[in-house]
Sequence to fold (688 residues):
Amino acid sequence: MTTTTDQTDDIVLEARGVTKHFPVRRTGRDLVARHRRTVHAVDDVSLQLRRSTVTALVGESGSGKSTVARLLSQLYPLTDGEIQLEGKAVKAGRGRSFRSYVRQVQLIFQDPFASLNPVHTVRYHLTRSLRIHGREATGAELAALLERVQLTPAAQYLDKFPHELSGGQRQRVAIARALGADPKVLLADEPVSMLDVSIRLGVLNLLRDLKERLHLAILYITHDIASARYFADTTLVMYAGRIVEGGDSETVTQRPAHPYTQLLIASAPDPDRVVAEEEQEETGSGEPPSLIAPPAGCRFHPRCPKAMERCRTELPPRFDLADGQWAACWLYADGADTTDTVGDHEKEAAK
Amino acid sequence: MSEPVLTISGLNVDYGTGDAAVHALRDIDLTLHRGEVLGLAGESGSGKSTLAYAVTRLLSPPGVITGGEVHYHQRDGEALDLLTLTAPELRAFRWQELSIVFQGAMNSLNPVHTVHSQLTDVLKAHRPEMKRAERTARAVELLSLVGISADRLSAYPHQLSGGMRQRVMIAMALALEPEIVIMDEPTTALDVVMQRQILRQLVKLREELGFSVVFITHDISLLIEFSDRIAIMYGGRIVEEAGASDIYRDPCHPYSDGLLHSFPALHGPRRELTGIPGSPPHLSAMPDGCAFHPRCGKALDPCATQVPVLARPDGDGSRTVACWLHQPTPATAAPRS
Ligand SMILES: Nc1ncnc2c1ncn2[C@@H]1O[C@H](COP(=O)(O)OP(=O)(O)OP(=O)(O)O)[C@@H](O)[C@H]1O
Ligand SMILES: Nc1ncnc2c1ncn2[C@@H]1O[C@H](COP(=O)(O)OP(=O)(O)O)[C@@H](O)[C@H]1O
Ligand code: SF4
Ligand code: SF4
Ligand SMILES: [Mg+2]
Ligand SMILES: [Mg+2]
Fold:
């Protein structure tokens, strides 16, 4: 899948084996026992963001999605691994190269109220963003930015304070501010989960439109896998700090391979669900594990209805399936590259 | 449909008084039947929580009930007017007959007390005749009802996950076997896997214990799956009420239809998502006429000036809708009394 050259050319931002462990405040007992406990928030995450592509990162709360976004935007130092922007390894540090990185990789947060300063107008936020990134802040530039996020006529919005805008308008201003840097990558961390249901769609359509017109590479972080089906080209599924499945969004949502993705999909609200409760029991239950002492082997094994002996001890690597889909699960171990396994997988998904 | 257990009629609630007053609830008529799950949907600010607080008399200033009636129907047929209960009567009524699980309730457990002591305190207050051992036995029983094992009794709230804390709150709400349980966004802070586990447990318990549920959320697809009937709120009014499958298959109100077309579907063919233009109104600047008219693609002449009231659309006795598309427009209508 990643072998042809034009596809590698398309990669704007890439994470290779990115890992983040946070130290846990030590208790007296840890000191005596000389333990150093850490939260394994993100382990060995590799992903590629391509030009003109929306990649969704889906997972339960606490699975490490926001930490991935913060690592990609250099807000935290990495514990291990490497980040490459357009094929060049990014070095930790603050100076000029850091500023240039931040200009190219912009982060948008969940809460548009918290991310805009309440005492400043829209004009101030946008002017500042343009200036910081060395661009001129003429009236025409400001109007063009607002137009890109469909806040028109611009004059009606420029002198408003954040509290005078609706949630959807605030999130559009936050996006316009990010665009002020003329970035190549947008990292959007749950950009609509704090917005009213009826206005979410507009913001998601806007992101898709920006991907097409400005050829941005967008990481769309969400806990709503149905929205990934509609708005992302590629979907990655994260569980307890690791990415467990990836592929084209339609394939991942319609033929999920990993038992965790299957659980996530079986749990999503579905008005068409015919009550076939017994079937649902099979998908598993329980809750995500502690990340201080994550389970050995496959992190999903304590909840997995299909767990085998080796799942308890051996970490499953990534197995490639058909059409660019892959899963980190031992179910796909035997000759994963042969058509045989693809057959198995289809049987699995058809159940 | 079974007999009513709670009837709300003409309920009005304001925040503030005099010139500063804004109308948060207007002319709410709603009936909860025995044993049913009634879903209440609407965007934030539409008045869902205000309704839950007003009905349970938990509304605190500047909120004031300015009109209407709320009746609770006991099993023997006698009706209690909830808006005139005295403070001691109210205390006996809450928990005993009606309990409520609030938005973010899982954060309202007392952090310095164990699950055991918080569950048994409710029993101690309302069932003074129970012995200590009986209270503990009941607490174990309640936890097992919501799928938590007895060994968590001695846990403090911070030792439990969010989903378990929320289930403890639900266990507490069921402690005195109330007739009505009101849940205000009980699972919004949880993820989908936990949300489904809790809701399935609740629906199962409802079948075993026979209570009624008012289930409030902004997630209409969740409501369609888990409730029997659904009422949709917009701008402080109920704009449509019908059976869950009727709302899903054939919404009458353009706002209900817009809500249904705002959620991407996980299964089936990809549908076109039309969404709803504009954004929800503010209480202080509620549009005249039908509050939805500035966002409605089907608005007619009277919509901007005349408020449509809840009425039965032609030939259908089981549902109501407040929209000029479904009733004679004022020019041709007989004067209303
Ligand atoms: N600064 C920090 N110090 C210690 N632990 C942290 C820190 N930031 C995050 N964590 C932990 O890392 C894990 C992943 O957190 P993260 O915020 O990335 O999850 P998430 O998937 O974004 O969840 P949500 O959907 O709730 O936002 C959690 O267990 C969290 O408690
Ligand atoms: N204490 C208060 N003072 C003034 N307005 C309030 C207060 N509490 C709620 N409101 C307003 O009442 C409306 C309905 O609120 P609420 O019932 O909480 O809505 P929902 O639960 O549907 O999100 C909102 O516009 C909200 O801003
Ligand atoms: S590796 Fe084993 S435990 Fe993990 S998801 Fe696959 S079958 Fe389940
Ligand atoms: S009353 Fe008029 S504006 Fe309101 S929903 Fe019906 S058609 Fe639309
Ligand atoms: Mg997060
Ligand atoms: Mg509310």
